[in-house]
Design brief:
Elements lengths: L1 H9 L8 H25 L10 H13 L2 H33 L1 H14 L8 H8 L3 H25 L3 H9 L4 H30 L1 H4 L8 H10 L3 H29 L7
Length: 268
């Protein structure tokens, strides 16, 4: 009876899972992925040129790290992603706040943002090269294009989810419009905005390879594209896995920030 009840609680809809159990299941998920990859590579069904084994990828990672260029590539790519993402945050959060607050601004900006978010960032490569050249500004601009418009819309949606009752209560207590926006609307929407930033930072990492199409001579995306020319599939895997790992680390950092800043939302 106890065992059955425990299983029912574990598989309950939106049930509670302890931290240790979560980590064990997450580790099993990664282990299953690596194990399946290893078995498929060892089976001989797929040529090593197309699917190198995990140990070959590990050796390539070590060689890349040993020659000193890996850390340089990581640092360069990290600077580009954070540069484009930070620029998007500085522009999108205030704009999204006001679009979500004022209907005239919503009517003016939202259709334009909806249109722009469907434009593929890779299509802007030739235009960005014409507008800002082929330096670091071009890489940052492409990452900005890939994240800004989505971020504006998501922040404005976070703002619109603030209950009207909170705004009316603040107005009843004598708060003026600026105080309502800064002390009620923004603070109430902040947990959702932080979560929006976590999601859009993931998109910024996905646009890294596109950004490094523009006359790059370093960076993880550049290394992946260069490895493609020489059929260095193991190096391509290393680059992809490193981008995924860096993205995961930043994602978990945002999750930790969310828990520390808004603990009442994570109370059991």
């Amino acid at each position: 009876m106890t065992g059955g009840g425990s299983r029912d609680a574990l598989w309950a809809v939106r049930g509670i899972l302890g931290g240790r159990s979560y980590l064990v299941l997450a580790a099993l998920g990664f282990a299953s992925f690596v194990g399946g990859w290893w078995l498929l590579a060892a089976s001989g069904l797929v040529d090593a040129v197309f699917l190198p084994a995990p140990d070959a990828v590990a050796r390539r990672w070590y060689a890349w790290f040993s020659d000193g260029s890996l850390l340089v590539d990581v640092r360069v790519s990290l600077g580009r992603v954070l540069g484009g993402f930070s620029l998007a945050v500085l522009m999108a959060v205030p704009l999204g706040l006001y679009i979500g607050t004022f209907r005239p601004l919503q009517a003016f900006f939202e259709p334009l943002m909806e249109f722009a978010r469907y434009l593929p960032a890779v299509a802007f490569v030739p235009l960005v090269m014409l507008w800002v050249g082929i330096g670091e500004a071009a890489k940052i601009a492409l990452i900005w294009i890939g994240t800004f418009f989505q971020m504006v819309l998501m922040v404005s949606d976070n703002v619109r989810q603030v209950p009207m009752a909170q705004i009316e209560a603040a107005q009843t207590l004598g708060a003026n419009r600026d105080e309502v926006i800064s002390r009620v609307v923004f603070k109430s929407a902040l947990p959702g905005i932080v979560d929006t930033l976590r999601i859009t930072l993931g998109w910024a990492w996905t646009y890294l390879v596109v950004a490094e199409l523009v006359a790059a001579n370093s960076g993880l995306g550049y290394a992946i594209l260069r490895a493609q020319r020489f059929l260095q599939t193991d190096k391509i895997f290393v680059g992809i896995l490193l981008i995924g790992l860096l993205g995961l680390l930043f994602d978990q950092g945002f999750r930790l920030l969310h828990r520390r800043a808004f603990p009442w939302l994570h109370a059991r």
